[in-house]
Amino acid sequence: MNRNNKQKKLKYQIFIYMIIGLLIWMLIASALDETLYYLEEKRGIEFPYKVYLICNLVQAVILVLMNIPFLNFLINHVDKPVQKIITSLNKIADGKYDEQISFNSKNEFDQIKDAFNSMSKKLEAAEKIKKNAENERILLFANMAHDLKTPITSIIGFSKALSDVIIEDKVKQHEYISTINSKAVKMNDLIDRLFEYVKLESSENHLHFELVDIAEILRNCIAELYTEYEEKKIQLEIEIPDNPVIKNVDKLELSRVYTNLLNNVIKHNPDGIRVFVCMKNDGQLLIADSGDRLPQELEEKLFTPFVSGDSSRRSSNGSGLGLSLASKIVKKHGGELRFVQNGGDVPEGYTKAFIVIL
């Protein structure tokens, strides 16, 4: 606001320059005329016609000289900014979104410059987002092809062996059929998760919000997975408010978030660890575990599609889409899903944690 007050209107600047120039020229021209008049009338000097001609010529020269500062002003404060703006606009049109304009006109052109530079930064940021999205999409399909190829290869090999009656042993045949079935189930699970991921990416996909007790949703998710926690000998500590925690959420999608995070603890940690599930009255959820810390390079891309929560995305422990789905769903709710290791956000005695903020 202060800057706008310091800026002068271009039309006022031009008007002031013109008035000042005109006044100075009139003063000089009047002084010459008065001098000639004084010499003629008071001194009785008669000047030839050439003197008056020269006098008029001098006035014309003075008028031209008086307009030089005005022309210089127009060049520096109007023409040069306009040319810079045109040049930068052409560069933007050619895809050079990092283009910035630099000049100081102290008038409305400064506002145009600031608006242009702001637009340029936004275009550059949008282009980076677009490129990152394209790269993520390419990586998504490349990883999907990789993860589908392995079970497909196994299915082709085992089914070929069965169809050609290479394996006559009934026990072996049963093993081959079981392997084909497990590989097919894994492929189906991967495709289902991929469909969910792509559906969330679509601008036409809308969540169905309603006021529900998210504490009850969390209890149900824990109950569904409790047997698996027992099988892994996981010591589960739970702190959930007795009173309802009402939030405006998509019940089905939020259930998927909680289930994915609780499943992640089972799939990517050894048996016998401790897990702490804590929901606060404001709905913030913390799921901490005492398992091994993650390498930094894996932590940085934990929510990237097809990255698994163990040492490699090639692990058979998961599709690598669960955390990506959870992150996208939470963002669709206007919240945040964070992963932390040690530090003040992780309870004492635990190594890492997921935090869901709605």
Please outline the helices and strands.
Elements: H1 2-6, H2 10-41, H3 49-93, H4 108-163, H5 170-201, E1 210-213, H6 214-231, E2 235-239, E3 246-249, H7 251-267, E4 274-279, E5 285-289, H8 296-299, H9 322-332, E6 336-341, E7 352-357
Parallel strand pairs: 2-4
Antiparallel strand pairs: 1-3, 4-5, 5-7, 6-7
Helix pairs in contact: 2-3, 3-4, 4-5, 5-9, 6-7, 7-9
Strand content bin = 5-15%
Q: How many E-type strands?
A: 7
Cα Rg: 39 Å
Our count of helices gives 9
Distance between the termini: 36 Å
Instruction: Choose one word for the global shape.
Output: elongated
Helix and strand run: HHHHHEHEEHEEHHEE
Alpha-beta classification:
alpha+beta
Keyword list:
single chain; 358 residues; five-stranded mixed beta sheet; two-stranded antiparallel ribbon; 61% helix
Structure commentary:
With 358 residues, this protein is of the alpha+beta class. 61% of the residues lie in helices and 10% in strands. It contains nine helices and seven strands. It has helices spanning 2-6, 10-41, 49-93, 108-163, 170-201, 214-231, 251-267, 296-299, 322-332, and strands spanning 210-213, 235-239, 246-249, 274-279, 285-289, 336-341, 352-357. A five-stranded mixed sheet has the order 2-4-5-7-6. Strands 1-3 form a two-stranded antiparallel ribbon. Helix 7 packs antiparallel against helix 9 (322-332). The radius of gyration is 39 Å and the shape is elongated. 17% of the residues are buried. The model is unreliable at 1-6 and 308-317 (pLDDT under 50).
